[in-house]
Amino acid sequence: xxxxxxxxxxxxxxxxxxxxxxxxxxxxxxxxxxxxxxxxxxxxxxxxxxxxxxxxxxxxxxxxxxxxxxxxxxxxxxxxxxxxxxxxxxxxxxxxxxxxxxxxxxxxxxxxxxxxxxxxxxxxxxxxxxxxxxxxxxxxxxxxxxxxxxxxxxxxxxxxxxxxxxxxxxxxxxxxxxxxxxxxxxxxxxxxxxxxxxxxxxxxxxxxxxxxxxxxxxxxxxxxxxxxxxxxxxxxxxxxxxxxxxxxxxxxxxxxxxxxxxxxxxxxxxxxxxxxxxxxxxxxxxxxxxxxxxxxxxxxxxxxxxxxxxxxxxxxxxxxxxxxxxxxxxxxxxxxxxxxxxxxxxxxxxxxxxxxx
Length: 357
Hints:
Elements: H1 3-14, H2 69-72, E1 84-87, E2 90-98, E3 114-130, E4 134-148, E5 152-167, E6 173-184, E7 200-216, E8 221-238, E9 242-260, E10 265-280, E11 294-308, E12 313-320, E13 323-327
């Protein structure tokens, strides 16, 4: 395989499909099941809510995080004993050095190294208030993203989250609603999908709506339900010449069940279904294959255990996530179909006779 063929092969492998890409505002627990088959190095850009389990790999099924859970299922805000305020500044950075780009067939050998990387600075501020029979919460964040790919790319994002929960009279359950909004000037990793473009403009928005129910069946059993409608819209413009739209919309439904097996041991199960439509997927120059519209179905089946003592906490999750996606391409011109019979055709060619003098 020559160098040109190798580059084309790497490009296809690097980004064959970027379908149904979506950004949750908190960890992926009971959230949007991300379908990202382009292996981009990107963290949870909008994982801005406080978390007591982030350093534990975000175990979630049997262990409940009292700080983060209300921003996932707003009804769980009623389990708080009191309100709290928070701020959690974060700075994330990664980089790598590539001796020679592999994405351009027209790139000559480059002896100098190219440095790719991302800087992400976030400053979220929020508060949850707790009253006798209702709770409410609000947080917003300021975020600056800087990436170095073909050129320098800088973006400014503003996420906003609000929630409200109330006890359901004469029951052990609470009802909660939540709204996530965000103005997006840039999404982490997208600039790397436009290799060779030194001027990229992104503009988009996220708007999600949540409806949650949380309650106790007994002193040892609790069950939670979450329904969510999520939307992501964006527009990309590269070098003033390439324009792409990115759209996906979907629904999510999740149910969780936890039980206290002993005073220190808890078990739980989780079932999540996420159905998406992506009427427009960007035709990234890296892949060069338009893919829209389409649908994605993703599911999450999980079980977990958590053992907690006054001095230690151990938790384990086992999760199975089957994903099915379908996209297609509309032909630019009509396609002719031909049928051939099962026969043998013999062709003979006769050349004109030559005269002999």
